[in-house]
What does this fold into?
Amino acid sequence: MLDELLAPWRAVWAPWLRAFEAGSARLGLAPLAGLAGALADDLELGEPPTVPLAQALARAAQRPIAAATIHEGPFSRLVLIAPGNGRGRGRTLLVAPCSGYAAAVLAELALVLLERGELAVLEWHDARLVPAAAGPLGAAEQAALAGEAIARTGPDLVVAVSQSGDAALAATLAARVADPRDAPRGLVLLGAPVVPQVGRTALQRALASLPPATLAAAFLSRVGPGFPGEGRLVFPGTHQLRTVAAAEPWLYGTVRLGALVERLDGREGPWRRALGDLHAIQHVPGELWLDLVGRLRGGEVPLSEEARAAGRGLALMTVEAGADALVGPGQTHALHDRLGPSRVPRARLTLERAGHHDLFVGPLFLGSLAPALLGFADELTGRGVRPLGG
It folds into this structure.
């Protein structure tokens, strides 16, 4: 409701502030230009389209990135990115979360994964841009798209972040059931609530206590006129940003302050890029968000014996943040127990004092998690991967 009330203000004031920013910059008035730009950023918050991951990668790496779209559908885009060093025999599929953020927020994680070889990325379109005639995108449809991405790219490693964990797990196990010789050999889950029945956070308990009709009325809205998805029920990305800001106020406040200082100095620096990633929000299909919350309310869904058998040959690494306010303790690591004994490498890593975003961006990620992630991936690399389409 608040976003709808602010829409007329955005339409009127954002262009004026952008013009004032440009004029002040031409006159050498960096502080005025920076203040106008910061205000305009807030007014334009959440306006589609968001920056694709390949573009965010090029900005973070400060070099051109060779990327090709393999497949694009109404809800998703599958992109293959070549490693900058031309080396590496592995191929990773990164399944971005569809939780209110664009895949651009995963730029640092993607750069690390490129060190081992080719990187395929499954990223999601803003639901406002998906015509209602395209139908729903619930948990089952998301898992099916992840399965298609595995079939098209033939990765030896699948990496999933946060909300995408369920889809990546289901697709990886299904591929191993179908043909273990040509399926992913390893799976990495970063802060993914794949077993949400354990260690629920205060936010998760609150959401689970509300009836579906109440949740829909409080958190979902219809896409308005002017967008291809007019009439589609969505979870606005601004809700996700407010959740992150409330859960990690120190992180969000520090990034905002650093970005403002850089703007007032007329600089494009790491704080502005970080704030741009935090503000790279997009709307989520309402049925997918309700499915996610429904997992919190329901009991544990047992894996079939066929899936458990396929999982025994799957190398697994799970990573949790010790101070994660969005995903409860044990909700990622518990997958080891669900899959049962293994004959291949298994690893559990908990980053103490880390927040949710430390699992894919920032100094703690680069210093503590990235080396462990590449070490786990190195154990899988050795047989190469099949050519695309092979």
About this structure: The first strand starts at residue 67 and ends at 72. DSSP finds 15 helices and eleven strands in the chain. The chain has two domains: 1-44, 53-204+289-378. The longest helix spans residues 2-26.
